[in-house]
Design goal:
The protein is an alpha+beta fold. Helices cover 35% and strands 33% of the residues. The chain contains 5 helices and 8 strands. The protein has an 8-stranded antiparallel sheet.
C-alpha cells in the first residue's frame, strides 16, 4: 500500500508540473468561470414616445389622444373605441403603466372623439411621419380637431438638441408640415 500511495503522489506531482502548477490551475478555473458567468445586462434606455404609446395601449386598448413627456414619466390620454377616456402615466425607466383617471361611463363627449377614433392616421403614424420630416426625438403628440374650418391633424413636438420643432401631420393623408421651431430654455 505504501508503494501505491507513493505512486499516486508522484503522479499528482507530475500532473501539477506538466500543467504549470497551482497558478495554472487557478487561471484555468478563472477562465472557466468567466465562460459560464451570465453576461451583464445591457444598460436600459429610456422608454421613447412610441414605447410609451404601445405600453399605454396594451393596458388600456383604444387610440392615443395625446402623449407628453414630463420629466421621468409620459402622460398618455387614451380614448377607447366605445368613447371612454383614460389618463395614464408611463414610467420612462421601467415602462410600467399607471392609471391616473379613467371614465366609468361614456360622458357624452363622443362627438369629438368619433373623428379621433376613426382617423386614418393614428398618433403612432403621426409620430413616424413627423420624425421623417424633421429628425429628433418626439416630446409630445396631440390630436387637434379644429371645428372652425373642419381640419383634423396631429401636432407633434420634436426636440433636436436645444431646438423644439412643431410638426403638423394631417389626420387623413399623413402629410407632415413643419409649422415652427424655437429654442428650448428649460432643457426638457
Amino acid at each position: 500500500m505504501h508503494r501505491k500511495h507513493q505512486a499516486c503522489v508522484a503522479t499528482a506531482a507530475a500532473v501539477v508540473l506538466i500543467t504549470g502548477g497551482p497558478a495554472a490551475a487557478a487561471a484555468a478555473h478563472t477562465a472557466d468561470a468567466a465562460r459560464t458567468a451570465p453576461a451583464a445586462a445591457p444598460a436600459r434606455a429610456d422608454v421613447d414616445a412610441a414605447g410609451a404609446a404601445a405600453a399605454a395601449l396594451k393596458k388600456y386598448p383604444g387610440v392615443v389622444e395625446s402623449l407628453d413627456r414630463d420629466g421621468a414619466v409620459w402622460h398618455v390620454d387614451v380614448i377607447a373605441k366605445n368613447g371612454k377616456h383614460a389618463e395614464l402615466t408611463v414610467d420612462t425607466r421601467s415602462g410600467k403603466v399607471f392609471t391616473e383617471n379613467a371614465d366609468n361611463d361614456n360622458d357624452g363627449d363622443d362627438g369629438g372623439n368619433k373623428a379621433l377614433v376613426s382617423a386614418k392616421v393614428t398618433a403612432q403614424k403621426a409620430m413616424k411621419a413627423a420624425v421623417a420630416a424633421h429628425s429628433g426625438q418626439v416630446r409630445s403628440v396631440e390630436w387637434d380637431d379644429d371645428d372652425d374650418n373642419g381640419s383634423r391633424y396631429w401636432n407633434v413636438e420634436i426636440q433636436s438638441g436645444n431646438k423644439t420643432t412643431n410638426v403638423h401631420v394631417d389626420a387623413t393623408s399623413g402629410k407632415a408640415t413643419v409649422s415652427g421651431s424655437d429654442s428650448d430654455d428649460d432643457g426638457n
